[in-house]
Batch of 2 targets.
Target 1
Amino acid sequence: MRDSGNFKLQQFYLKSSGTVAKTQQVYFWQSVGGTVTILRDVGKDWDMSIRIIGTGSALPAHQVTNEDLAKLVDTSDEWIRERTGIGCRRISTGETVVSLAADACRNALEDGGMEASGVELLLVATCTPERGIPCAACQVQDRLGAQNAVAFDLNAACAGFLFALHTACAYVEAGIYRNALVVGAEVLSKIVDWSDRSTCVLFGDGAGAVLVEHCREGGILGYVQHSDGARGDVLKCDSRAIQNPYISSRMEVPFVQMDGREVFAFAVRKVPASIEEALEKSRIQAAEVDLFVLHQANRRILEGIARRLGVDLERFAMNLDQVGNMSSAAIPVLLDELNREGRLKRGMTLVLAGFGAGLTYGACVMQW
Ligand code: ACO
């Protein structure tokens, strides 16, 4: 008897005359030439997956409340709470993407019981690295002593952590690596215009990391991701301008620019659709999901998504009132918080969903 390994689900459907399994734990067998092959119904084409075995996070020490911001710009605690659900956030007074990411990774490694030297892949999702080169992931690798890891960055803005998690999953599915540290880390405070009340109240700094390893049971059951570059102007921040001896240009300091209403409309329309797509791929009903762990952009966006999915808001984990919108760091920081509070039990079904500049969005269904 042997496990089906890389047996494709589509082939199974053809051979089983249209039988469809209801959950991914259901096993089927078929006997061919004396060999019994166990076929497992999974949402992905291949039955290798990844599961999270450790989480970690790191936040800057300095806390900034809504009242603090009201001293900088014409705003109020009432306006910010009502429109966004945010009460305070952490802002760097010296912490960097690399220092926060490295601290989050150390915590995740300790939680997962692995030495840094055992890490095979190190992905840092960030849109606010300190350096263009080398990438933040290589700097984190150096700080951790994770000398055996392949390390590189990935930028998909607020969907960055999720896209990095999917990338790790794809590498593991392909049999290239057996484990990975996946990090979301941002110091957004350096690209925010602190005189613009419509954006500076939204963001916070921080980093979260998960340690994942290969598995054949549970883990990520299915994932989807999408990019819509044609709508990139809705939320943007320029990088360095072209400056060389052959053109005359004046360097302006670039800041985040956002059409808040467009971002809102995009999120409440596209995110529920991508969650439904991921659920369908995983053969899981929304009613079977224990917890929705979404990008923490705005409480009203999460309310809109829950309404569209027909899911009670109580099943949506939230910490944005304490930390604001930390872009790619939002989901892993929230996962770490839930994990350390003992709210994540093995076997629970989670939906993760990220969305942001690009526009980028995606979702995955996983068994904890
Ligand atoms: N304090 C007080 N008043 C403010 C503030 C503030 N911080 N910011 C804007 N206003 C004012 C505006 O100037 C405007 O005043 P006016 O009517 O006199 O012109 C008024 O409030 C309404 O402004 P709107 O932009 O229409 O406010 P809206 O209700 O759309 O709320 C918000 C703005 C919260 C940004 C909303 O559009 C939103 O939630 N968008 C989603 C964007 C988001 O969450 N982005 C996060 C980054 S992207 C991501 O993570 C996916």
Target 2
Amino acid sequence: MDTPLFQPIPGMVDLTAPEVLLWQHLEEQARQLLPLYGFSEIRTPALEYTPVFTRSLGETTDVVQKEMYTFADRGGRSLTLRPEGTAGVIRYAAGQGAAAEGARLYYLGPMFRCERPQAGRKRQFHQLGVESFGEPNPAADVEVIALQQHLFQSWGLHAFTIDINTRGLPEDRPAVTAGLAAAARPHLDALCADCRRRFDTNIFRLLDCKQAACRQVVDTLPDPASFMSAPSRVYLAEVVRLLQGLNLPVRVNPRLVRGLDYYIHTVWEIRHPALGAQDALSGGGRYRVTLDTKPFDGVGFAAGLERAVMAVQHDQPDRLAALQPPRPVWLVALGPAAREANLRLAQELRQGGCACGLDLGDRSLKAQLRAANRVGAAWAVLRGDRELAAGTATLKNLQDGTQVELPLADVVTKLNAVKGRGTTS
Ligand code: HAM
């Protein structure tokens, strides 16, 4: 089979204007907001040693079992393209020892999961994530949920809902697993093949299977929190109480399970109706990860930027149009001397903050004006040998066709004042 040379790999996309403008806008807003909460940026490598992920996400999770891009380097060591951002940030922070205590880090970048591509589900996708390190504390979880709500509001999103739940303390897990297994065992035959496997390996994952038959069984299962110890239930109650104090509307959803195993206590997911089947805009929670011997605690979330862009386009349909770049001024040269002079003029205008384009070849006046129209220029500046000798230029309004010859310095002043926009004073 021929390898297509002009197409990206399925599930990976080329991102270009105009949509990329919305990405830049969301990223800029996040970069302004996150420092208000004390977060600074970290950029970790996209490639890590495989155990960084297997030890933190959990060997039995779908991500580790089916979705990682893993290969051996030349020395035979197993490497993995990061399927999410938390594990690499923990790898960094855990390596810093005491210096990382209480660290607050955010990241923004591509992640890789070998999933079946569909709308809102890509093989290379982008996450904006935050991680706040420290011992379990309901107030820390609530602060991160509030930050996430603030971020989404700053993006102009309003149609989202927040579901939260608890995974309880790690020491509760045997009791919860036993309780759920006892309730699910009589229905084993009704479950899909994946869930029959999950019944033995990771029974929590039964709870978020999308198959109709499995959902029917799940509806009959007791709330996992009913098998948890008092400290786990008290922790969730305190998170809910503090969220209410901030007027943050959340729904406690006992069926919410996150797909990663590092979570303890609070987990949450934000959904948006514009996203269809892949409706999770972001997910997060409190985690405890042991990479070598020492457990590492923190809380965080990650939002999928592909999905955030879809949601913003739904909630704010006019947003993208408002982000169009400035219309450039187009410099038209009549003859080689003017062409060379225009190269200098273009730099002068750009250094004054005015978007500017010019014909670099030797094309006719008509062809140059056509190029100006193609890029949506509002103004053209025309010069030939006569104007060069006189120190003037013709400023042409490309919207109404009017034109005026002015001293070059006046043309520059005018264009710098309007930054290429359609009107001059
Ligand atoms: P996650 O739920 O696996 O959590 O992913 C977070 C978000 O990334 C999802 O809600 C979704 O918006 C986006 N996402 C995930 N997979 C894809 C995909 N294949 N295509 C497009 N978007 C996708 C995590 O990754 C955790 N590390 C979050 C976290 C940070 N928990 C604590 N700290």
